[in-house]
Each structure stands twice: as structure tokens, then as C-alpha cells.
Specification:
The complex is a heterodimer of chains A (730) and B (166).
Chain A (H helix, E strand, L loop, with lengths): L3 E4 L6 H4 L14 H6 L14 E7 L5 E6 L10 E5 L23 E2 L5 E7 L2 H10 L2 E5 L12 E3 L3 E3 L2 H6 L3 E9 L11 E7 L2 E6 L4 H12 L6 E4 L15 H13 L3 E4 L2 H7 L6 E9 L5 E12 L21 E10 L13 H19 L3 H6 L12 E2 L4 H12 L10 E3 L2 E13 L5 E8 L2 E5 L9 H13 L6 E4 L16 H24 L7 E3 L2 E4 L2 E4 H4 L4 E9 L2 H4 E2 L1 E13 L5 E11 L6 H20 L32 E5 L23 H13 L5 E2 L3 H11 L2
Parallel strand pairs in A: 1-27, 2-14, 10-32, 12-13, 16-17, 18-28, 22-23, 30-31
Antiparallel strand pairs in A: 2-6, 3-5, 3-7, 4-6, 8-17, 9-17, 10-15, 11-12, 11-14, 15-16, 19-20, 20-29, 21-22, 21-27, 24-25, 25-26, 29-30
Chain B lengths: L1 E5 L2 E5 L7 H8 L18 E4 L2 E4 L12 E3 L12 H9 L8 H16 L17 H7 L10 H15 L1
Parallel strand pairs in B: 1-5
Antiparallel strand pairs in B: 1-2, 3-4, 3-5
Helix pairs in contact in B: 2-5
Classes of the chains: A alpha+beta (730), B alpha+beta (166).
Chain lengths: 730, 166
């Protein structure tokens, strides 16, 4: 049993003392050549011999019970094998890190589009046809679909510090504004897919999943078997963004069908099924109240929200998460109401909380700046608190002010004139700013590193969902062991390897990276002992070990292999300090005053996110997040049919994720140098979600600056922009 | 029986008439480099060349392509022998998860030919053809979605490969 290293105090910056010089470098991904040649194999692509095809049958009612399936009606379809109904089928995917089965409704229907059965056939074409033809009988019961009107709602106790009401009342300038965000979808490009294959008592699942250590337990619990009997492979995942955190209906249905039929079964969700059944980001109604004194110092902050989910789902979009520590005030209050409605259940989508909460908070800050007649950058700079305003915790390291100042300088913020003043024909041009914040975390994680002479192997069940895990884990091991990255083979996505954090919550690099670091550190200690020097004197570079006046090639020093495992978990520093990425987003937009069309002309994100492990993949993550910000600000909206709750915009033609033409070529990212000593032994912070946090607000604030009119329902679709312009009378 | 050529190799397939060209490639010829993202012609992940022209293979029935010459991502290069575009995508990090990548590269491959042939686009100055620019690339690549949103880097990679070609 490997001893768990707990992060109880700041650790030395060992990576800065290493000689190989690969950590931080903009190195290309080692798996890149496979991805660009189509030889990287994703979940649905390794078809075992004899594999048959399953298609999920989904409910066409919103609430009630399945009373029967008319199997006879389709029994003569050639190639049809079975119609599977089973009490273990899932209602929806597990929430992130659940580790246990999600709701297994056993015939009960909670939302329109819910999986209720699996049709299995020799071919995909037959299975798809049969799933559509299968008559299903229901008993319907009453339901609600509108979160704002729902009777079934849960009010959570407000979180407070100081006295909000009194400080708000005593403020000389106040903002009290309501904002709405439409529900959103992760819409990863690879649809959810699973191939299940039993051999004896064990099931092998090829899946598209982000957190294998948890997913194995969830699949086992769903099937009612021991986790030892489950192995999951996810070497390549076609995007996750939260949508593949938990085991899903496709995986459990494939496993059940495969066991029953005795052949491998593949279940791939159609794009519409992904939209209908995979956890969405809840729509939100938010009320932000800010109170300040005349010189722009915040005295009161309140951020209340209404979100929705299905009954039984514990997740509630943590809308005000960043509002609780980004700025300081004397009185703060945060409350949440959770409406229970028959809509596709909600869960984590990239930066749950910040992605929508910061749209409202940062819009409100802009409105306050306007009312105060103060520069929006300056207002933010004046309200950076000494310590966490809710908990009193210290910030581990925070360069928010530097990000705001550097961004303003590089973006040419000083050229920003009065609202509505810059005109180019039918277009109004404006600039906007927003702060960025996203909490960073360390999650229990294990890894094994093998040193075989002048090459090494890293093994962990960590996943790479496009984030760059293959690259950075190879860089960490290479740096610690004095090997070029080409000599490090990183093996991921297999539950037979030590269990890692998985990819979620921006904690993957922090957690899995630290585990690899610690395992390699143990190997270093062994090498130092062999050379007869202290670990601190050992220098490893390009396969050569030096220490105590001795120089030896690693191939001489390592007779067969040196293997070590390490495991890390959060410790005291996670309680004493708040670790969060911080940044500042800047956007310039053009708004057509007649059509309401918004074009983003350029964006700049300045971010401080701890040690950068790979400058190239980090930049990609940051850029991707900023473009998600464009989507949330301008186009992404899941529309629900008010009669059924069913999602209307349930494909990629109707749910508008940003495309090439929506994204300007002038998109810049600047990283400020930083080390987070309190976060983990490699001094990193999460990267994957900071880019989106606040980015959309910069775009929305730029629209307000361009037009002099404020949109408060997001995304700022053309009709909403036109309405805001008309109402403002500008 | 449908007979077509894929990456220079002839294949004769007896398929369910409902089988799309995409599923024929992926499930029957084991050419899984061509991806299924939406099956509705909305995302571009399934882009292949049919007789040199880019198409969404999910919107084609395999049976409609008797006698056609099809090029997939596997026909452009291999991990040891990358095409200029493939190498540029690696160099520029013009991808993240990699799932839309084959479609992006197939589209970009066709884009070069379309520009050479003088096809104008919505953003071109006139109808007499167009020259390579970021705006032209963005417009012509907009049928290929990338949810990781590597767009600026994809376009840098395409521009890099275009320069290398000149």
C-alpha cells in the first residue's frame, strides 16, 4: 500500500532546480501524429468480432411510467436481437465523482427523452429503425417544466458575512439587477459511446469517460457487481467539458445487453440523444446587488440565483462561487433556490458556477462602474480584498491586479471612449473588460513511474480529454528523471493502472501531475542512493546521472527497472489557503444597430494560473475557454418546449456553438509567471476553466459600451440586442 | 454490391441500403479516422473527399457512390509520414481532443484546391476568385465545428501549410 502524501505545507520548487528543461516548454503533444492521421482510436472504434449494435429507446412523455413495450410489433424485423428492459438501466449519467450508481428509475419517467430501453440488432441500421418503431405505452402524471413558475422548489440557507442589508442600505451608489442565462450544453464533438464485452465474470468497457476511477465504481454499482470485475479503457476521449464525468446510460445499457446476449454490444448515442439525456448546464435567474461608496469601494455584495434540476439530483449549479471571493465588501449574502422540473437533468459543464455566475457579477460590476463614472478596470482594482471575505482564508498567490493592469496596457484600453461613441456605418464599436476567477483544487491521485535505463513509462488511469495530459505527464517525468520527452511513454485511460483524479474541475494536472512528480521523486532518491549522494545533489540530464563527483549513464545505473508508485491528497493548505486562478479578459466587438448582430473583433486574456507545465497546450486550453465565453455571451441557448420541457435546440444546427466564422483571428493569451506553493508540490493551478470564467462578460460589457444599451438576458441574441437598444432609446 | 475506391484501394461491399458512406468507412472498412459527430451534416467531423470534392459522408448513402474515388484522412499521411497540413496541425496545436481534426484537415485539403480553382466565398472581394487570408480560411472552414475551440490555431496551421506549399 502506497503511503499517501498530504499537502500540509508549502513544498520546495524542485521542478525549478531540474536540468532537463522540458517543463513549461511549448512542446507538441506526443499523441498528435495519431490524432491528425485518424489513427487515434476513440470509444466506438475498436469493434470486437461479433459485436452487435444497441440503440436507446427514449421516453416521449415528460413524467409518468412505462406500462408496456409492444415487442410483438417489431419482432419480425430481420436482424433484430432483443429489446432490453432492466431495472438497472440509468435515468441519466452520474454526477461527477459520485462513485455510485445514479438514479435507476425502473420504468418511471422523469423527463422527455429519458432512456427507457435498449434495442439490440445485428446492424446499426436495424437497431435504429426498431428503436423508432417500438410502440411504448405510458401512464402520465402531472409535471412542471418552468423553473421560474415551479411550485416544487428548495430554498437553501443563505451564506453570509457581515450584514448585507444594512451595508447595502448605507451605500451611496447601488446596483440591483436581474440577469438570465439560458441552459447550455457541453456538446463535446464525440457522442457518448460504449462497447461492452464480457469474458467470464468480468466486463471490459471501452468508454468515453473523464474520471475512470469513479466510473469503474459507478458502473459496478449500477450493475450490482464488485468493482474488481470491471475494467474501463478510455485512451482517447473526443472532448468532455463535464459531460463525461459520470457513467452514463449508454455504458450501463451496453454492459447489461452484452451479458444477456453473450456478445459484445456497442451503444453510441445519436447527437439528439446526447442533447436530451446528458447533463446540461442549468438555466439561471440571477439577482446581483452591489453597494459602493462614492469612490467605488464596495460595501455590499449579494448574488442570489434560481437554478433547476430533476428530483433526486444533488447537483445545483454553484452560480455565486466566484462572487464569494473575487471582491471584498463589509456585508455579503449569497442564496440559492433549486427548482425541481421535468427537464433534462443538469450537472457540471465547463466551469460550473463561474461560467454563468460571472456573466452576471461582471456585468453588474460594469453597471456599477458606469453609475460611479469610474473606469471599469479601476473599479475592479479598488476592490481586491486582503483575505477571503467569507472565510478569512489567505489567498495562496493572486495576481489579479497585475492581470488587469497588463491587459489594459496591452489591449489599448486607454483608447476606449464614451459609450456609443465609436461608429462605423451601421456598426457601433465597443470594448469590455471582466475579471476571471476559477478555484483550483487537488484531488486524490496515484501514478506509477518505471525507469528502464534511458527511457521511462508513466502509468495512471488519468484521462486526456484534449487537455494535454499525455504531454504534461511526460514532461514532468522527463524533467525529474533527466530524459527527453521522446523517451517517456505515457499510458493513460486504463483502470488497471493506479487511480488518478480524472479530468474535471481543472484539477487534473494539479493532481495527476503531482502523483507522477512524487513517483519520479522516489526514483530519484533511489538513484541518489546508488550514486552515494544526497537527493539534493543528484543532477539528471539527457540520461546521465551526476552526484558526489560521480557521473554514470542511467543505462548503467538501472539494471532492469526502478518502479515507484505515489499517491497524493489535499491536506492542511487546502483549508488555510484559497487557491484560485485569476485573470482579466478584454474584448472588442462591433454591433449592428439594425440587425442586432454582434461580431467579436479581438480578445485578450491575461491569466496567472500557477506554473505553466506546457506553454503550448495551456494556451490552447485558455483560448478554448475564451471562445466558450463567446458562445455563452452570443449564441448558446438550449430552448425548452414549455409544454413538455423537451429541448428544442437539440442538435448542432440549432444549438449554436461558436464556429470558425464567429471567432476572430486576433485572440491573444498572456500568462503571467506564477508559482502556487500552497497548491501542490508542482506549484500549479487549474487551467481548463479559467479561460471561460468571465470571458463572456467581457464580450457583453463590450456590447454595452458599443451601444450604450445593456442586455441582461444571455446569450445576447440579435432580438435581445435590438430590444435593449430600443428600450435604452439610443 | 457497391464498388468504390478508398485511398486508392478498391472495395466491393454488399451493404444494407441504409448504410451511410460514413458508417461504411468506419464500421465496414475499419477506416475510423473519419468521425461521426452529429450524423446530420452539421459538424463536419465526417468530411471526406469524393472525386476530389469535400462532402459530409454522413449525408451520403454508400450505395450512391458506386465507381467513386474517395479519400479519407488515412489517405493523406501516416504518423511517420505526415502531410504538410497534418504536420502543421501538430506544430500549431490545431486541435485538442482530436475528434474533429480529421474533418478539419480534409476540409482544409479541399480548401486549397478550391482557392486554386478560383472559387469565391461569401467574404471574397468579388466573384473572380480569392486569395488566402484568415477571413477566407475562417469562412471556408465554418462547416467544421471544434468544440475544444482550437479555431485560431487551426487557422494558423492551415496558413502555415499554405505558405509551405508556395
Amino acid at each position: 500500500m502506497t503511503e499517501i502524501f498530504r499537502m500540509n505545507e508549502a513544498q520546495p520548487r524542485l521542478l525549478d532546480e531540474m536540468r532537463q528543461g522540458v517543463v513549461g516548454k511549448p512542446l507538441s503533444r506526443p499523441e498528435g501524429p495519431k490524432k491528425v492521421t485518424g489513427t487515434a482510436r476513440y470509444a466506438a472504434e475498436d469493434l470486437p468480432d461479433g459485436c452487435v449494435h444497441g440503440v436507446l429507446v427514449r421516453a416521449t412523455i415528460s413524467r409518468g411510467r412505462v406500462t408496456g413495450l409492444d415487442r410483438e410489433a417489431i419482432r419480425d424485423m430481420p436482424g433484430l436481437i432483443d429489446v432490453i428492459t432492466d431495472a438497472r438501466l440509468l435515468r441519466n449519467p452520474a454526477q461527477g465523482m459520485a462513485g455510485v450508481a445514479p438514479c435507476q428509475p425502473n420504468g418511471e419517467v422523469f423527463y422527455h427523452g429519458q432512456p427507457i430501453a435498449l434495442v439490440v440488432a445485428e446492424s446499426l441500421e436495424t437497431a435504429r429503425d426498431a428503436a423508432h418503431r417500438l410502440p411504448v405505452h405510458y401512464e402520465e402524471i402531472a409535471f412542471e417544466t418552468d423553473p421560474e413558475a415551479a411550485q416544487d422548489r428548495e430554498d437553501k440557507d443563505p451564506e453570509t458575512a457581515g450584514h448585507f442589508d444594512a451595508t447595502f442600505a448605507a451605500s451611496s451608489v447601488t446596483i440591483d439587477a436581474r440577469y438570465r442565462t439560458d441552459a447550455q450544453a457541453a456538446a463535446a464533438m464525440e457522442p457518448h459511446a460504449a462497447i461492452a464485452q464480457w469474458s467470464g465474470e468480468t466486463v471490459l468497457l471501452r468508454g468515453s469517460l473523464q474520471m475512470l476511477r469513479f466510473n469503474r465504481d459507478e458502473l459496478a454499482d449500477s450493475l450490482g457487481i464488485d468493482p474488481e470485475r470491471v475494467r474501463i479503457l478510455s485512451p482517447f476521449i473526443g472532448g468532455g467539458f463535464g459531460s463525461k464525468l459520470g457513467i452514463g446510460p449508454e455504458a450501463v445499457a451496453a454492459a447489461i445487453a452484452s451479458e444477456k446476449i453473450g456478445r459484445p454490444v456497442r451503444v453510441v448515442m445519436s447527437r439528439q440523444t446526447v442533447f436530451d439525456t446528458v447533463l446540461r448546464r442549468s438555466e439561471t435567474l440571477q439577482r446581483v446587488r452591489l453597494g459602493a461608496d462614492g469612490d467605488g469601494r464596495l460595501r455590499a455584495i449579494s448574488h442570489d440565483d434560481l437554478v433547476s434540476n430533476l428530483p433526486g439530483e444533488s447537483f445545483a449549479e454553484p452560480v455565486s462561487q466566484a462572487s464569494q471571493f473575487l471582491y471584498g465588501a463589509d456585508g455579503l449574502s449569497f442564496s440559492q433556490t433549486l427548482a425541481r422540473v421535468s427537464r433534462t437533468p443538469s450537472g457540471s459543464v465547463r466551469a460550473p458556477g463561474e461560467a454563468v455566475g460571472m456573466l452576471a457579477l461582471e456585468s453588474a460590476m460594469d453597471e456599477l462602474a458606469e453609475k460611479l463614472g469610474l473606469c471599469p478596470v479601476e473599479l475592479r482594482l479598488r476592490n481586491i480584498p486582503e483575505t477571503h471575505p467569507m472565510t478569512g482564508q489567505a489567498y495562496s498567490v493572486r495576481r489579479l491586479a497585475d492581470c488587469l493592469r497588463t491587459g489594459a496596457e496591452q489591449f489599448g484600453w486607454a483608447r476606449r471612449g464614451a459609450p456609443g461613441a465609436q461608429v462605423e456605418g451601421d456598426w457601433r464599436i465597443g470594448m469590455g473588460v471582466a475579471s476571471a476567477a476559477r478555484k483550483s483544487a487537488l484531488v486524490q491521485s496515484a501514478a506509477r513511474v518505471r525507469l528502464l535505463g534511458d527511457r521511462a513509462v508513466v502509468e495512471t488511469d488519468m484521462t486526456d480529454i484534449g487537455t494535454g495530459s499525455y504531454a504534461i505527464l511526460g514532461q514532468i517525468a522527463g524533467e525529474m528523471l533527466g530524459l527527453p520527452v521522446e523517451k517517456v511513454d505515457v499510458r493513460l485511460g486504463d483502470t488497471s493502472f493506479p487511480g488518478a483524479s480524472g479530468s474535471g474541475g481543472s484539477f487534473g494536472a494539479n493532481s495527476a501531475g503531482s502523483a507522477v512528480f512524487l513517483a519520479a521523486k522516489k526514483i530519484r532518491a533511489e538513484l541518489a542512493a546508488q550514486l552515494g549522494c544526497a537527493p539534493g545533489e543528484l543532477a539528471l540530464q539527457d540520461g546521465i546521472a551526476r552526484g558526489g563527483n560521480i557521473e554514470r549513464a542511467l543505462t548503467d545505473l538501472v539494471s532492469s527497472e526502478i518502479v515507484h508508485e505515489a499517491e497524493i491528497a489535499a491536506g492542511d493548505t487546502s483549508k488555510s489557503h484559497l487557491s484560485s486562478g485569476f485573470g482579466a479578459h478584454f474584448a472588442e466587438v462591433a454591433v449592428n444597430v439594425w440587425t442586432g448582430e454582434v461580431r467579436v473583433r479581438r480578445m485578450l486574456g491575461v491569466m496567472a494560473m500557477g506554473r505553466i507545465l506546457n506553454e503550448k497546450t495551456s494556451r490552447s486550453q485558455a483560448l478554448g475557454g475564451m471562445i466558450w465565453g463567446i458562445g455563452s455571451a452570443l449564441t448558446e441557448a438550449l430552448e425548452h418546449d414549455p409544454r413538455t420541457g423537451h429541448i428544442v435546440t437539440r442538435d448542432l444546427a440549432n444549438y449554436h456553438v461558436p464556429s470558425h466564422a464567429d471567432v476572430p483571428g486576433d485572440m491573444s493569451v498572456v500568462f503571467l509567471e506564477e508559482r502556487d506553493d500552497m497548491a501542490n508540490p508542482i506549484q500549479t493551478k487549474g487551467i481548463g476553466e479559467l479561460g471561460i470564467s468571465g470571458a463572456g462578460a467581457a464580450v457583453l460589457n463590450a456590447i454595452a459600451h458599443a451601444t450604450g444599451a445593456r442586455v441582461r438576458d444571455f446569450p445576447a441574441l440579435p432580438d435581445r440586442v435590438i430590444r435593449a437598444i430600443e428600450m435604452a432609446g439610443v | 454490391m457497391t464498388t468504390f475506391t478508398v485511398n486508392g484501394r478498391s472495395h466491393a461491399l454488399a451493404l444494407d441500403p441504409r448504410t451511410t458512406l460514413l458508417d461504411a468507412l468506419r464500421d465496414h472498412l475499419n477506416l475510423t479516422g473519419t468521425k461521426k459527430g452529429c450524423d446530420h451534416g452539421q459538424c463536419g467531423a465526417c468530411t471526406v473527399l469524393v472525386n476530389g470534392v469535400r462532402v459530409n459522408s454522413c449525408l451520403c448513402l454508400a450505395a450512391m457512390h458506386d465507381g467513386d474515388e474517395i479519400t479519407t484522412i488515412e489517405g493523406l499521411g501516416s504518423p511517420d509520414r505526415l502531410s504538410a497540413l497534418q504536420a502543421a496541425f501538430v506544430e500549431k496545436d490545431g486541435y485538442q481532443c482530436g475528434y474533429c481534426t480529421p474533418g478539419q484537415i480534409m476540409s482544409a485539403t479541399a480548401l486549397f484546391e478550391e482557392l486554386k480553382a478560383g472559387h469565391p466565398s461569401y467574404v471574397s472581394e468579388g466573384l473572380d476568385g480569392a486569395t488566402m487570408s484568415d477571413a477566407e480560411i475562417a469562412e471556408r472552414m465554418s462547416g467544421n465545428l471544434c468544440r475544444c475551440s482550437a479555431y485560431p490555431l487551426i487557422r494558423e496551421a492551415i496558413a502555415m501549410a499554405a505558405e509551405a506549399e508556395e
